[in-house]
C-alpha cells in the first residue's frame, strides 16, 4: 500500500529520539506515562496551549517536519481521546462558575483535531488535514486514509500519526468501567495475572508515508478493520489476509494486554498461523490505549530495521526471519484490526 | 437521504421549511443551561424520550446525539431502500462525524469523571465514536466504520472519506453523515469565545452578532454510478477538497486562505471552472470573522460570485452535522432547481458588497458548492452536480 | 494600591492565567506590547482570557471586545484602566 520513510515515537519507554528497549520502566499506579522530551523547536507561545497529547504529537512529528521541510501533502491523525482532558477542565469551569464568565482557552484546545491543527500551524501547512477519532480504529483509519491519498496522488507524502494520552478523567471513566486492573502490575507480570483489565498507556507515533521505496524503513501492505464479538469473523478476516498476501508471516505482533477477557481472540489468531511464527507482544512497553496499534507499527519498524526482538517482548520464539510482521489488536472486545508490515 | 434539524424531522419537512422561510431558531425548553432562556438556539422539536420511543431504543447508555443520528440514518436507508442484508454486507461502510458525541450529557460527564459514579450507564458513551459504535451494533453493520472529528467541517469530511472509499474500491456503498446535539459544553464554549449571537443570527449581514447553536443530523447513501443505475439518484458527488487555514486555533485568516484553497481544490477535483457553479450553500455562521473571510475567499475565486445563501439562518450552526445537513440542502437545490434564502438579512457588508439570496427562487442548479469550515483551520468544500 | 504594586501583581496574574511558564514577572516590561511578535505574542484567545481575569480579579466587566482591544495593550495601559475602573 505504501512505504514508511520516517517514523518517530514518544512513549513511556526510551524511544525518542533513539530507541533503547533492553531495560523497561514498570508502570506506576498501573499507568505507563510517556517520557516527555524538552520540545526544543516548538514555539513557546504554542507550547503553553498544548495538552499532553498535542505536545507529544507535535514533539514526535517535529523531526519529520524538519527533515521534510514544507513539502508535506497532508496531515492525517488518529486519536480517540485527544482533547478529553481539556474538555473536562473546561466543563469544571462551566460548573464551578455556574455558566458565568469563563475562559475559552480549554474549550478551543478540547477539540479532537487540536494535534492536527497545531501541526498545521507549526509547519505552516495548508494542505489536507484530518482527524479520525473512531476509538480503537482511529489510527488504522488514518493509515487507510493515507493509503487512499497515495493512490490518488502518487508523488506525494503524508504525515500520519496516532496519539493518545492518559488524562486524569479518561483514566477515571475507564477505571470505573473496569478496563484497568486494580492490583499493581509490573512489566514482569503484565501478562500472567489472568484477571480482567489492563494497564493504562499513552504515546505518540508519527510517520511519513510515501510511494517511494528507496531507503524506506518498511512497507505497510494491508490494513483490515472489523467490528465483531465473534471469533469466527476474526479468523475469517485473517484467512483472507493470508490468502491475499501469502502465508509468510515471520513475526506475529499480538496486542494482548493482560486482560483475560480477550485472550481467546489472540489465541485464536495465534493458532491460525504457522507453528514457526515468532509471537511477540508490545503492550507491556506502551500500555493499553485506543491507538496503541500505532506503537505496534513503530515497534514493527524497529524489529525490521534492527533484526532484533528484545527478550521481554518474545512470547514464543519461532522463525528468526525478519521480513513480514502481522499486527493484530482488539480494542475493548469489539474493534479488531490487522496491519501487515513488510521489510522494505 | 435523511435529515433531522430544528426545521423538521424528515427531508420533506426540512424542504418545506426552506421554501416557506420558516426559521427553526428560538427559545430552548427544558434544557439544563442558564443560557436556555437568554439566547436563541435551534433545537430539534422532539424530546430525547420521544426519540427513544420512535426509534425503539431502550438501552440507557444511548445519548441524544446517537438518537439524532439514528433518526436521520433510518430515513436515509429507507429512502435508499437498503435491505437488512445490504446493510450488513462487508461492502457497506458507515462514515460518521460528530464533535459533541456523548458530551451532550455535560453534567453527567462531570459527575462521572469527578465523583466516581460507578452505576452510570454512560461510562463509554462520552466520546464521539460511541455514536457510530452503537449504530454498528444496532444495525448489525459489518463494513468499515469510521468517526471523523475536524470540528465544524467534520461531516463534510465524512462525505469525502466515504466517496473516496468507494473510488478506491474499499467499499461498495457508503452511508455518510454526521450528528451533533446541543450541549451545555458547546454553549458555554462558544459563549466564552463571544461568538454566540444574543439575537437570531443574520449571516452575511453588516450588523451580524455571531452564531446560534443548533442540533441535528443527516446521512446520505453513496454508491458508484454504475451500481446506482436504475435506482433513484439525487445527485453526484462531483468534487471535494480539504485544506487548512494554518492561521489560528479558532479564527480564519482575513483573506480566507483555507476557504479559498478548499473551494479552488474542489473545483479542480470536479474538473469544473468557477463560472460553472450555480449556487453556494455557504458556511455562513453569522460571526464577524467567518462571514468576512468566507466572502473574501469567494471573491478571490469567482469573478462574479454566484447566488449564495446560509441555511444556518434556519437551523443554527449544527457543528459536526452541518456539512451533512447542508449537503442534503445542496442536493435539494439541484433536484428542485431552487435557491434557499438567507433569513433575517438586512444590510450588505460594505467591505465586500456581497448580498446573499434572501428569497426562494427558481434557478438552474446543475452544480452546487457547499462550504464547511472549522476550528483548527479545517476547511472543506464539496460540489454536488445533477446527474441528468 | 500603588501603581507599581498593581503592575507587579498584574504580571504575576498574567503569567499564571495565560500559562506563560517560561516567563518571570521581571521579564515583562511595562511597555512591552501584549500582542504581536515583538512583545508577548498573545492572540485573540488570550484577550478573551484577560477579559475574564479583569472580571474575576478586579470586578470589571467588558462586554464589548472592541473596548478590550483598547485597554489590552501593555502593562502600563492595563494598570491605568484597572485603577480607574476597578470595583474590587
The greatest interface here is: A-B, 65 and 68 residues
Architecture (CATH level 2) name of chain C: Orthogonal Bundle
| Rg of chain C, Å, rounded | 12 Å
Order of helical and strand elements of chain A: EHHEHHHEHEHEEHEHEHHEEE
Poorly predicted regions of chain C: none
Estimate nothing, just give the exact number of structural domains of chain C. 1
Helix segment count of chain A?
11
Specify Rg of chain A, calculated over alpha carbons: 19 Å
Strand content of chain C: under 5%
Fold blueprint:
The complex is a heterotrimer of chains A (344), B (388) and C (88).
Chain A: E1 2-10, H1 44-47, H2 52-68, E2 74-78, H3 84-96, H4 105-109, H5 114-122, E3 128-132, H6 138-152, E4 157-164, H7 168-176, E5 203-210, E6 218-227, H8 231-245, E7 251-254, H9 263-272, E8 278-281, H10 283-286, H11 292-306, E9 314-316, E10 324-331, E11 335-343
Parallel strand pairs in A: 2-3, 2-4, 7-8, 7-10
Antiparallel strand pairs in A: 1-5, 1-6, 4-5, 6-11, 8-9, 10-11
Helix pairs in contact in A: 2-5, 8-9
Chain B: E1 2-4, H1 11-20, H2 48-55, H3 64-79, H4 84-87, E2 92-97, H5 106-115, H6 129-138, E3 145-148, H7 154-167, E4 173-180, H8 184-192, E5 216-223, H9 225-228, E6 236-244, H10 257-270, E7 279-281, H11 288-301, E8 308-309, H12 312-315, H13 322-336, E9 367-373, E10 378-385
Parallel strand pairs in B: 2-3, 2-4, 7-8, 7-9
Antiparallel strand pairs in B: 1-5, 4-5, 6-10, 9-10
Helix pairs in contact in B: 2-3, 3-6, 7-13, 10-11
Chain C: H1 3-17, H2 44-58, H3 65-71, H4 75-85
Helix pairs in contact in C: 1-4
Please explain how this structure is put together:
The complex is a heterotrimer of chains A (344), B (388) and C (88). Chain A is an alpha/beta fold and 344 residues long. Helix content of chain A is 34%, strand content 21%. Chain A folds into 2 domains: 2-210, 3-Layer(aba) Sandwich (Peroxisomal Thiolase, Chain A, domain 1), CATH 3.40.47.10; 218-343, Thiolase/Chalcone synthase (Peroxisomal Thiolase, Chain A, domain 1). Chain A has helices at 44-47, 52-68, 84-96, 105-109, 114-122, 138-152, 168-176, 231-245, 263-272, 283-286, 292-306, and strands at residues 2-10, 74-78, 128-132, 157-164, 203-210, 218-227, 251-254, 278-281, 314-316, 324-331, 335-343. In chain A, helix 2 (52-68) packs parallel to helix 5 and helix 8 runs parallel beside helix 9. The model of chain A has no long low-confidence stretch (mean pLDDT 95). Chain B is an alpha/beta fold and 388 residues long. Chain B has one domain (2-385): Peroxisomal Thiolase, Chain A, domain 1, CATH 3.40.47.10. Chain B contains 13 helices and 10 strands. Chain B has helices at 11-20, 48-55, 64-79, 84-87, 106-115, 129-138, 154-167, 184-192, 225-228, 257-270, 288-301, 312-315, 322-336; strands at 2-4, 92-97, 145-148, 173-180, 216-223, 236-244, 279-281, 308-309, 367-373, 378-385. Chain B has a 5-stranded mixed sheet with strand order 1-5-4-2-3, with helices on both faces. In chain B, helix 2 (48-55) runs parallel beside helix 3 (64-79), helix 7 (154-167) packs across helix 13 and helix 10 (257-270) crosses helix 11. The longest helix of chain B has 16 residues, at 64-79. The two termini of chain B are 18 Å apart. The mean pLDDT of chain B is 96. Chain C is mainly α and 88 residues long. Chain C has helices at 3-17, 44-58, 65-71, 75-85. Chain C starts with a helix and ends with a helix. The mean pLDDT of chain C is 90.
Amino acid at each position: 500500500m505504501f512505504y514508511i520513510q520516517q517514523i518517530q515515537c514518544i512513549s513511556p519507554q526510551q524511544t525518542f529520539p533513539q530507541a533503547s528497549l533492553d531495560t523497561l520502566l514498570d508502570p506506576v499506579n498501573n499507568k505507563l506515562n510517556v517520557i516527555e522530551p524538552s520540545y526544543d523547536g516548538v514555539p513557546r507561545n504554542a507550547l503553553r496551549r498544548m495538552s499532553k497529547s498535542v505536545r507529544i504529537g507535535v514533539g514526535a512529528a517535529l523531526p519529520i517536519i524538519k527533515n521534510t521541510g514544507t513539502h508535506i501533502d497532508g496531515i492525517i491523525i488518529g486519536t480517540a481521546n485527544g482533547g478529553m482532558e481539556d474538555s473536562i477542565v473546561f466543563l469544571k469551569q462551566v460548573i464551578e462558575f455556574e455558566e458565568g464568565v469563563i475562559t475559552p482557552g480549554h474549550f478551543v484546545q478540547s477539540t479532537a483535531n487540536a494535534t492536527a491543527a497545531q501541526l498545521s500551524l507549526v509547519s505552516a501547512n495548508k494542505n489536507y488535514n484530518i482527524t479520525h477519532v473512531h476509538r480503537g480504529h482511529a489510527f488504522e483509519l488514518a493509515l487507510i486514509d493515507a493509503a487512499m491519498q497515495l493512490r490518488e496522488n502518487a508523488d506525494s507524502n503524508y504525515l500520519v500519526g496516532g496519539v493518545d494520552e492518559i488524562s486524569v478523567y479518561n483514566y477515571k471513566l475507564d477505571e470505573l468501567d473496569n478496563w484497568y486492573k486494580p492490583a499493581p502490575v509490573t512489566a514482569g507480570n503484565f501478562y500472567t495475572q489472568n484477571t480482567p483489565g489492563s494497564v493504562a498507556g499513552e504515546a505518540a507515533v508519527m510517520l511519513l508515508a510515501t510511494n517511494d521505496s528507496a531507503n524506506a524503513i518498511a512497507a505497510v501492505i494491508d490494513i483490515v478493520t472489523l467490528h465483531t464479538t465473534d471469533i469466527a469473523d476474526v479468523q475469517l478476516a485473517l484467512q483472507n489476509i493470508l490468502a491475499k498476501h501469502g502465508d509468510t508471516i515471520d513475526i506475529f505482533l499480538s496486542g494482548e494486554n493482560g486482560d483475560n477477557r480477550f485472550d481467546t481472540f489472540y489465541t485464536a489468531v495465534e493458532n491460525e498461523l504457522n507453528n514457526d511464527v515468532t509471537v511477540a507482544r508490545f503492550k507491556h512497553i506502551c500500555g493499553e490505549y485506543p491507538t496503541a496499534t500505532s506503537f505496534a507499527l513503530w515497534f514493527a519498524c524497529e524489529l525490521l530495521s534492527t533484526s532484533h526482538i528484545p527478550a521481554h517482548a518474545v512470547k514464543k520464539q519461532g522463525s528468526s526471519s525478519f521480513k513480514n510482521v502481522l499486527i493484530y489488536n482488539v480494542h475493548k472486545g469489539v474493534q479488531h484490526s490487522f496491519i501487515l508490515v513488510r521489510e522494505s | 437521504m435523511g435529515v433531522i434539524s430544528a426545521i423538521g424531522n424528515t427531508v420533506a419537512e426540512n424542504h418545506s421549511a426552506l421554501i416557506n422561510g420558516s426559521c427553526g431558531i428560538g427559545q430552548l425548553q427544558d434544557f439544563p443551561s442558564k443560557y436556555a432562556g437568554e439566547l436563541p438556539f435551534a433545537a430539534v422539536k422532539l424530546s430525547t424520550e420521544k426519540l427513544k420511543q420512535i426509534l425503539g431504543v431502550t438501552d440507557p447508555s444511548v445519548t441524544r446525539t446517537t438518537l439524532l443520528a439514528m433518526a436521520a440514518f433510518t430515513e436515509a436507508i429507507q429512502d435508499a431502500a437498503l435491505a437488512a442484508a445490504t446493510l450488513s454486507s462487508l461492502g457497506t461502510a458507515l462514515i460518521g462525524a460528530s464533535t459533541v458525541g456523548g458530551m451532550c450529557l455535560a453534567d453527567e460527564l462531570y459527575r462521572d469523571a469527578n465523583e466516581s459514579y460507578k452505576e452510570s450507564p454512560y461510562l463509554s458513551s462520552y466520546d464521539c465514536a460511541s455514536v457510530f459504535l452503537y449504530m454498528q451494533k444496532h444495525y448489525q453493520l459489518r463494513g468499515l466504520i469510521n468517526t471523523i472529528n475536524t470540528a465544524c467541517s467534520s461531516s463534510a469530511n465524512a462525505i469525502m472519506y466515504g466517496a473516496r472509499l468507494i473510488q478506491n474500491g474499499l467499499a461498495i456503498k457508503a452511508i455518510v453523515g454526521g450528528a451533533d446535539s446541543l450541549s451545555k459544553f458547546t454553549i458555554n464554549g462558544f459563549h466564552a469565545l463571544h461568538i454566540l449571537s444574543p439575537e437570531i443570527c443574520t449571516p452575511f449581514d453588516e450588523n451580524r452578532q455571531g452564531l446560534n447553536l443548533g442540533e441535528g443530523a443527516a446521512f446520505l447513501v453513496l454508491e458508484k454510478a454504475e451500481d446506482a443505475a436504475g435506482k433513484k439518484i439525487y445527485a453526484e458527488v462531483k468534487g471535494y477538497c480539504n485544506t487548512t487555514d494554518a492561521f489560528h486555533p479558532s479564527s480564519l485568516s482575513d483573506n480566507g486562505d483555507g476557504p479559498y484553497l478548499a473551494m479552488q481544490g474542489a473545483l479542480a477535483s470536479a474538473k469544473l471552472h468557477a463560472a460553472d457553479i450555480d449556487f453556494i450553500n455557504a458556511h455562513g455562521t453569522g460571526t464577524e470573522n467567518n462571514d468576512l473571510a468566507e466572502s473574501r475567499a469567494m471573491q478571490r475565486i469567482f469573478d462574479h460570485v454566484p447566488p449564495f445563501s446560509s441555511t444556518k439562518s434556519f437551523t443554527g450552526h449544527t457543528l459536526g452535522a452541518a456539512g451533512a445537513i447542508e449537503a442534503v440542502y445542496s442536493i435539494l437545490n439541484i433536484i428542485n432547481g431552487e435557491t434557499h434564502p438567507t433569513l433575517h438579512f438586512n444590510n450588505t457588508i460594505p467591505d465586500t458588497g456581497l448580498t446573499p439570496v434572501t428569497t426562494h427562487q427558481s434557478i438552474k442548479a446543475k452544480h452546487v458548492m457547499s462550504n464547511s469550515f472549522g476550528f483548527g483551520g479545517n476547511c472543506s468544500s464539496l460540489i454536488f452536480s445533477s446527474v441528468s | 494600591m500603588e501603581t507599581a504594586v498593581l503592575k507587579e501583581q498584574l504580571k504575576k496574574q498574567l503569567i499564571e492565567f495565560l500559562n506563560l511558564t517560561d516567563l518571570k514577572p521581571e521579564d515583562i516590561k511595562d511597555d512591552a506590547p501584549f500582542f504581536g511578535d515583538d512583545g508577548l505574542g498573545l492572540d485573540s484567545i488570550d484577550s478573551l482570557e484577560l477579559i475574564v481575569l479583569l472580571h474575576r480579579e478586579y470586578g470589571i466587566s467588558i462586554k464589548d471586545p472592541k473596548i478590550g482591544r483598547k485597554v489590552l495593550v501593555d502593562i502600563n495601559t492595563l494598570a491605568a484602566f484597572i485603577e480607574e475602573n476597578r470595583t474590587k
